[in-house]
């Protein structure tokens, strides 16, 4: 847990959870919440995840002149979600590059720049736009270190706003993480709150391996307190490892596992369960989808005996499938019931007027918990 | 047909070689030594104004013979690799036969600070960049996926996904410009690749960002079975004008022309004037790879026409006419080629398989617990050499290592043989 960031666990009645102001809601970008130009922020003021990412990118660029930001509309506009707002003013057009609209080229040229010693941070504007770059990501970026017998390192970060819940048109609400988790050579992470977002983006940029960095777009405007000091200035242990999963709420009766946008949903479900059923649910934020850090999950399941995995992506051959398989392999005799999953349906992402039916919510999670206890 | 040569030198090739290339519309000009140009917008003077002979005027007699030697050795390596494939020592081979002039001419134009991005047939460029040919054979033998240090040789790894490397080259060239490097990048691709989205994205980016990059398209007339006219309604070199940078079409079977044009293009790129597209018109005299049968899609007459434009024959004729290549020197080059091939064969046939557990190496820079767990499990079951295994008894009759199995070695070769037998 990023202890520096935890300021208001008492809001949830238990120690542990990160602060996520519920009032920020699931709405789209709110102008009032948009981050201003990057700059100093005190540790005390709650900020949005978008701002936290912005400050993290600022810190990463300030720390290493080889870091460059590239993508569609990331410069003058500051990105369609304003995550790169002010960076071009601060670091110049040479380091914050408005690119042509060519996703394959965004990744392909980033590979070339990385071969030349740069550390590109690419933005794919929306999840559904990543597929034109699929070959460059899975066949080139992921494999060149292996193909070169370790001679080539490609420290490329690919930021992708992902997931639904903002009432968007088609191709703007998808959860493509399983494609990338399935590919050796890629790291895949998802932040769920401002404090993690701030630290994880800096850690991702510092990684010598390529990182798919998934940002839950419907949580961009939820606030939390962030220790905005640059990563290098934080005391040891203040920020979790990039690839550590974290218990964000302790509980004793069943374990909920989520990542990205569904961590908040799991925490909400745990609150309701606590009040209604007096069931104590533990919530784990996976944070890293590849590699998976299943240590905390296994430890939790060995105590609770019940596990529900929650994500927006469809269930078929998904992260939850991998978690279920490996927990079954490694903690079979601790399980009181099968591992259950609450996921998006195995359909294309529906029209926005139907997305509330598609996305995992508190009711579906608690229903799964009930089913677990019914075994 | 005139070869471009140092000032004052002229040579004529046989009349029949002047027939239009098979993929040029009837009545169109054949590939000629005099480069053709496509003007960029703005009327910037380009290829038509290049004094190409001046770009090779510094070549000494030894340099000229050196180009012939390069082409001869590269062809010999290519022949040996083809034989090794036929004998089961390589799983596959992609022959460069016919493209020696394009590759050696452009490859010898490169300086120590330049960076080349190949596709998978640039054995001649690799030769010019000092890459060990055995490292290339190792790829086609299935013993390696790369095998040389790109930074050390200024020669990136082969790229099999067609056209993908053009974007890497664009990004790399952008980085060179940022670093104030005095080098440029060159990227090799073919007529087929020119249809790929990545290539067109690379054109756009390199133009917009003024990347110091030479796009070197070897139009070898065939993308496996598809002729160039299936890739583009316009001449490939005309494409550059739409992206805002100049292009040159050059006789790709003329090593001096290729050298001169590439030197010009690289110098232009290094001077900060942005990318150039070179279309080297040549011919893939062999099959696409050893798994291909070109008699199914092209005629013997076409092959004969291009055989009469053989780049080695042309350079030999030129050197002989000028008294630069006597029989003794040619014999010594041939001997050198045979020695090289013999050595390469020996190194190929004795090349050990990589250590089995090396398949777990370099998946990522950072440790990956999943991979290390699988490595440990593999080692526990089969031993570090992969040969132990089956501790609980002998393999069953239908297990991979059992009496009816195909064995775990030579899978690629065995697999191809199986496909051929079953399919036909």
From TrEMBL, chain A:
Region described as Disordered: spans on this chain: 1-40
EC number: 1.2.4.1
Cross-referenced SUPFAM superfamilies: Thiamin diphosphate-binding fold (THDP-binding), TK C-terminal domain-like
Record keyword Oxidoreductase present: yes
InterPro entries in alphabetical order: THDP-binding, Transketo_C/PFOR_II, Transketolase-like_Pyr-bd, Transketolase_C
Location of the Transketolase-like pyrimidine-binding domain: 47-222
Domain of life of the native organism: Bacteria
Top-rank EC class of the record's enzyme: oxidoreductase
Keyword presence, Metal-binding: no
Cofactor requirements of the protein: thiamine diphosphate
Keyword list, A-Z: Oxidoreductase, Pyruvate, Thiamine pyrophosphate
Record Pfam families: Transket_pyr, Transketolase_C
Recorded GO MF terms: magnesium ion binding; pyruvate dehydrogenase (acetyl-transferring) activity
Compositionally skewed regions (Low complexity) per UniProt: 29-40
The protein's name: Pyruvate dehydrogenase (E1 beta subunit)
Organism: Frankia canadensis
Gene name per UniProt: pdhB
Automatic annotation (TrEMBL), chain B:
Class of this enzyme: oxidoreductase
Residues covered by the Dehydrogenase E1 component domain: 69-347
Residue ranges, compositional bias (Gly residues): 404-413
GO BP annotation list: branched-chain amino acid catabolic process
UniProt cross-references to InterPro entries, sorted A to Z: Alpha-ketoacid_DH_E1_comp, DH_E1, PdhA/BkdA, THDP-binding
One example GO MF annotation: magnesium ion binding
EC number of this enzyme: 1.2.4.4
Disordered as annotated region, ranges: 1-50, 383-424
Alphabetical keyword list: Oxidoreductase, Thiamine pyrophosphate
Pfam families referenced in this protein's UniProt entry, alphabetically: E1_dh
Cofactor: thiamine diphosphate
Protein name per UniProt: 3-methyl-2-oxobutanoate dehydrogenase subunit alpha
Organism: Frankia canadensis
């Amino acid at each position: 847990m990023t202890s520096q960031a935890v300021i208001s666990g008492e809001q949830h009645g238990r120690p542990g959870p990160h602060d996520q102001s519920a009032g920020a809601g699931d709405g789209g970008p709110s102008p009032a919440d948009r981050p201003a130009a990057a700059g100093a922020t005190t540790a005390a003021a709650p900020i949005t995840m978008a701002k936290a990412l912005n400050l993290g990118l600022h810190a990463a660029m300030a720390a290493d002149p080889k870091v460059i930001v590239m993508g569609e509309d990331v410069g003058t506009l500051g990105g369609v979600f304003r995550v790169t707002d002010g960076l071009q003013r601060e670091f110049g057009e040479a380091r914050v590059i408005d690119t042509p609209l060519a996703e394959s080229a965004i990744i392909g040229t980033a590979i070339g720049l990385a071969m030349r010693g740069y550390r590109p941070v690419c933005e794919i504007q929306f999840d559904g736009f990543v597929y034109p770059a699929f070959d460059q990501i899975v066949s080139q970026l992921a494999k060149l270190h292996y193909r070169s017998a370790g001679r080539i390192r490609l420290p490329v970060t690919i930021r992708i706003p992902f997931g639904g819940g903002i009432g968007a048109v088609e191709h703007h609400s998808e959860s493509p993480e399983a494609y990338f988790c399935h590919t050796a050579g890629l790291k895949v992470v998802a932040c769920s709150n401002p404090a993690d977002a701030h630290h994880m983006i800096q850690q991702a940029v510092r990684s010598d391996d390529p990182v798919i960095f998934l940002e839950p777009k419907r949580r961009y405007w939820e606030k939390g307190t962030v220790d905005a000091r640059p990563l290098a200035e934080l005391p040891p242990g203040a920020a979790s490892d990039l690839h550590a999963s974290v218990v964000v709420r302790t509980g004793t009766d069943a374990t909920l596992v989520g990542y990205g946008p569904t961590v908040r949903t799991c925490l909400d479900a745990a609150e309701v369960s606590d009040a209604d059923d007096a069931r104590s649910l533990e919530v784990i934020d996976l944070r890293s989808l590849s590699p998976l850090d299943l240590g905390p999950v296994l430890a939790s399941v060995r105590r609770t005996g019940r596990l529900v995995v929650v994500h927006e992506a469809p269930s078929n051959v998904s992260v939850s499938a991998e978690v279920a398989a490996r927990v079954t392999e490694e903690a079979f005799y601790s399980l009181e019931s099968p591992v259950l999953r609450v996921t998006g349906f195995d359909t294309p992402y529906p029209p926005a007027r139907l997305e509330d039916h598609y996305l995992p919510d508190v009711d579906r999670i608690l229903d799964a918990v009930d089913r677990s206890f019914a075994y | 047909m005139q070869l471009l040569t140092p000032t004052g030198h002229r040579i004529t090739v046989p009349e029949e070689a002047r027939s239009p290339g098979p993929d040029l519309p009837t009545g169109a000009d054949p590939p000629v030594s005099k480069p053709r140009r496509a003007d960029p917008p703005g009327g910037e003077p380009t290829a038509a104004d290049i004094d190409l002979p001046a770009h090779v005027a510094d070549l000494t007699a030894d340099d000229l013979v050196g180009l012939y030697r390069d082409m001869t050795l590269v062809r010999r390596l290519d022949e040996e690799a083809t034989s090794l494939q036929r004998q089961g020592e390589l799983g596959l081979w992609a022959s460069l036969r016919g493209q020696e002039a394009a590759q050696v001419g452009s490859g010898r134009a490169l300086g120590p600070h330049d960076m080349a991005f190949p596709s998978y047939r640039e054995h001649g460029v690799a030769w010019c960049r000092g890459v060990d040919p055995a490292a290339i054979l190792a790829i086609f033998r299935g013993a390696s996926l790369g095998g040389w240090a790109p930074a050390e040789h200024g020669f990136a790894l082969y790229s099999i996904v067609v056209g993908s490397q053009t974007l890497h080259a664009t990004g790399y060239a952008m980085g060179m410009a940022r670093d104030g490097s005095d080098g440029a990048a060159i990227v090799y691709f073919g007529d087929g690749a020119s249809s790929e989205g990545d290539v067109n994205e690379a054109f756009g980016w390199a133009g917009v960002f003024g990347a110091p990059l030479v796009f070197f398209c070897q139009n070898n007339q065939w993308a496996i079975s598809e002729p160039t006219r299936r890739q583009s309604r316009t001449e490939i070199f005309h494409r550059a004008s739409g992206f805002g940078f100049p292009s040159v079409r050059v006789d790709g079977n003329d090593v001096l022309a290729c050298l001169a044009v590439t030197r010009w293009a690289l110098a232009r790129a290094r001077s900060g004037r942005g990318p150039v597209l070179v279309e080297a018109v040549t011919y893939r005299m062999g099959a696409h790879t050893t798994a291909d049968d070109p008699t199914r899609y092209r005629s013997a007459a076409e092959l004969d026409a291009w055989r009469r434009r053989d780049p080695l024959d042309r350079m030999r004729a030129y050197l002989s006419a000028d008294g630069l290549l006597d029989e003794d020197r040619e014999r010594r080059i041939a001997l050198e080629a045979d020695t090289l091939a013999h050595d390469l064969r020996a190194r190929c046939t004795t090349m050990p398989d990589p250590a089995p557990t090396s398949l777990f190496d370099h998946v990522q820079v950072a440790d990956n617990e999943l991979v290390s767990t699988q490595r440990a499990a593999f080692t526990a079951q089969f031993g570090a050499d992969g040969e132990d295994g089956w501790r609980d008894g002998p393999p069953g009759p239908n297990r991979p290592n059992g009496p009816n199995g195909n064995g775990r070695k030579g899978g690629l070769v065995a697999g191809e043989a199986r496909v051929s037998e079953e399919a036909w």
